[in-house]
Amino acid sequence: MEKQAANTKMIAKLMMKLLPIQILLSAVTAVNGIVSSFYASNFISVDSMSAIGLYGPINMLITAINMTMVGGSVILCGKYMGQNQQEKMRNVFSLSLVISAIIGIVFTVLFVIFGAFDLTGFLAKDPVLRPLFNQYLLGMSIGVFPLVVGNQLQAFLSMENKGNRTLVAIGVYIFLNIVLNFLFVLVLKMEIFGLALASSIGLWAFFLVQAPYFFSKKSHLRFSMKGLAWKESGAILRIGFPAASARVYETIRGLIVNALLLAYVGSVALSAFAAVDSLLRIFWAIPFGMQAVSRMLMSVSVGEEDRRTLADIMRVMFTRYVPLMCAVSALLIIFAVPLTRIFYRDPADPVYMMTVWGLRLIPVCMPLSTIAIHFINYGQASGKDVLVNILSLFDGAVFVAGFTALLIPALKMNSVYIANILNGVGCILICVIYALIRKKHFPRSMDDLMVIPDDFGVTDDERMDLSIKSIEDVVTISQRVQAFCEEKGIDAHRSYLAGLAMEEMAGNIVDHGFTKDKKKHSVDVRVVHKDNDLILRLKDDCVPFDPRERQKIADPDDVTKNIGLRMIFKMAEDIQYQNILGLNVLTIKV
């Protein structure tokens, strides 16, 4: 139990540390939405807000494609990280960017054609809304390419632990978006086309700030067109599509819900829903940031076949992430009225109370959705395609569209909001029922709820986990590792070498890593015995340090320098180093 608690605490610390930057990354497009909605509702017209609402399903489709590419490539890269397959990891990165660029170009051409030649009648039948929608589509066409490719870059910068570069890109984007909206809408009177153009130019800046890093020597994931293994594109799409298919379903759902609202409530309902959606996208960035953190960690854990960490990620989601989302939801409900006044000021206007009720009801589903998207993440990473496809279908379309259709004759606008809450409840029930069917009993543990296969990873008897917090802990590690190896029937020579290697490497981290700053650090040590292989892994949160580089630059004529490292590299069968999400991970096979 103590080992379990220590591992959970370390995972919780890492997940909370990575969360803020991921929230900010997820909020980029949401910022655009709220700025555009503010200018549209206050300085253009309510009809322009309705036109932005009509763009919602298209935005969902682009989001679905982004999720397919980001989810598939990040999960695949994470698995290759866990397996120490560097070349495959770099190939997936380059291939993902090439495919995303092609997709961005295709969407740009389609937007220009549909907007310029008034081919949007199937989406905007209203003769007043369609010209506004066409102008908005033309403006947005300029920003599709940097949006699709830029989302890829921000995900990979997170894997490189270079989130600060993306923070700069976000700052530049927000600044340009606000300034250009003021210039285009208020000064130049470009109206709804100006709204879209401001966003598009901001997205180009967002993309251009991030891209140069991947052409530098500092990046582990340097972009290269040489030797692309296109066969990996199938794996990217296969892994990424099941979860992203929810956004495809959301596109269908959006079309159905828009049609129901227009039929039962009127165009004012689209204006209210667009205002609620644009504001809440800022706060949806929190669960989406949580999703991004968990997706990266889960994919690495699956690659390492780390059963305990995989379950701990889900435990932290329930104990840290869900309570945090409950607090955020409560604040949104409390401040629903002042938030509504950002867009609409007249309480007598029907759109005012429609928006207030949206901000009171929709937040209730946020903690529920946090749980659902984590199970989708886990299903993606672990190959549970049945669970992911069922959740994607019901979460994306069936529950919301179905409950809205049932409730809208009686509840009108509020039917959409209540349907979203019922959707969250339904998705959690699907996860429980799936576990019940697979395990043939009600889930009694996190392993049961996640339906982790019995043969996944190694049993606790075949592994030893230790935590090193000081040099005193290093002194005893050699004996403990050696004793563990001998208990597993490993010969005395290999057992001795394993203990020696672990003591040398752990001591090196404590001596050099712990003293680089004033922060508290620890080294997570793991010894795994599987199929007669003996694998030693050290993971720490100190400054990046690759012992292979230290060994390479050692003076070959001075055998007294780095003697410990020389000895370990000579006796080990294989040594691999990676910096994963800001953690040094050293794997030694003896």
Helical run tally: 21
Domains counted in the coordinates: how many? 2
> What class do helices, strands and sheet pairing give?
alpha+beta
Radius of gyration: 26 Å
Low-confidence stretches: none
* Order of SSEs: HHHHHHHHHHHHHHHHHEHHEEHHEE
Q: Count the strands?
A: 5
How much helix, percentage-wise, in residues? over 70%
Strand content: 5-15%
Question: How would you characterize the overall build of this protein?
Answer:
Helix 3 (46-82) packs parallel to helix 5 (129-141), helix 3 (46-82) runs antiparallel to helix 9 and helix 10 packs antiparallel against helix 11. This protein has helices at residues 2-26, 28-44, 46-82, 86-116, 129-141, 144-159, 163-187, 191-210, 232-264, 267-304, 307-334, 336-340, 350-361, 365-382, 385-411, 414-439, 446-450, 471-487, 492-513, 547-552, 563-571, and strands at 463-468, 523-530, 533-540, 574-580, 583-589. The chain is built from 21 helices and 5 strands. 73% of the residues lie in helices and 6% in strands. The protein has 2 domains: 2-446, no CATH class; 461-589, Heat Shock Protein 90. It has 590 residues and is α+β, with helices and mostly antiparallel strands. The mean pLDDT is 83. The protein starts with a helix and ends with a strand. The protein has a 5-stranded antiparallel sheet, with helices on both faces. It is elongated and about 85 Å long.
